[in-house]
Amino acid sequence: MSFDVAAVRSEFPILKEKIGKYPLVYLDNGATTQKPQIVIDAICNYYTHQNANIHRGVHHLSQVSTEAYETARTTIQKAINATHNHECIFTKGTTDGINLIAHSFGKGLEKGDEIIISALEHHSNIVPWQFLVEEKGVLLKVIPMLQDGSLDFDAFLALLSAKTKLLSITHISNALGIINPIEKYIEAAHKVGAKVLIDAAQSLQHFAIDVQALDCDFMVFSGHKIFGPTGVGILYGKEVELNALPPYQGGGDMIKTVTFEKTTYNELPHKFEAGTPNIVGGIALGTAFEWRNKLDLKAVEAHENELLAITTEALLKIDGLKIYGDAPNKSSVISFLIDGLHPYDIGTLLNQQGVAVRTGHHCTQPIMDYYHIPGTIRVSFSLYNTKSDVESLITALKKAVKMLK
Ligand code: PMP
To answer: What span, in angstroms and rounded, lies between the C-alpha atoms of 79 and 39?
Structure first.
């Protein structure tokens, strides 16, 4: 198999949009990816032909809807190679998945227990653990980062002890694009008996993940960053780990029996899926995975790595431009600043030329504090980006710099 970027691109209708008189150059894929027509059609098809509540009705539409939702779960299970489909819990997204674990895993923690996160975390993998620090008196420890944006593995080893109950770590930094070698972090954490939660929000759009090979206990991601809709995501958990946790929210679907005296809980995955879920979101996320399954993901990775290399080279030729996070193992994300220029001004001038990039702290204020900067300009590629997008970016950027200097 190989990868035909023009053919893939033609499946994304939004990429034909114009911003003023300029064609859209979408380079904000770290924030969210665009959706192929097949995913858009799945959403429309659901409300046109399938809409009904799931798991409850004997009538035809309810059965069709339930079947489509559960088929999507199985598609996702297979894509990440989970052992059972009930190990894939539908959530609202990465943030929701982390909060679920913080709540349910947190119930079993005691004062003095330790949780380790890293200096590269998104705010959604910092704040839920701080709630536990306040509520339970657990200690939150942070793996420090180094100048090149990688993590200090030796410092991590020194943080580990019998008190460590959980390591919650991002696979890829959304702000810098650095890929953490999570395999060795997982192995080391398991040696002291800690569980491991992987924030895969940024990784699944770039390459495949095999949760069994990785041996993580939990993994979370958002559908909207992998060509699916917003408001839906997945918490993967090993069956034994999920069964050991109390439920997150109470309500319909998550119960077996209810009396005013006592409630018994449903089995996985329903125990963690209280209330009517984002049914259409789950189904369309399944469609997004089916679509992605047909791609040669190794060829996609090579394509994105080429975009990363040529863009990095071209950017570094611009006077006063500094890239933050230049450790060798990177996904196709580049964060940079230009001497004396505010990222927001650059972002605004790029937008005026049709180029969509992100500016700011990217929900990673501790990283910005580490570098003593207010924020960066972040370019993040996806599989449908082309060399022509890179040329547009560089031309627009040079023009913006000229206007501002
Ligand atoms: N973690 C990482 C690494 C992210 O990139 C993001 C989204 N920027 C999140 C967590 C939060 O994802 P969501 O807003 O979809 O819940």
So the answer is: 17
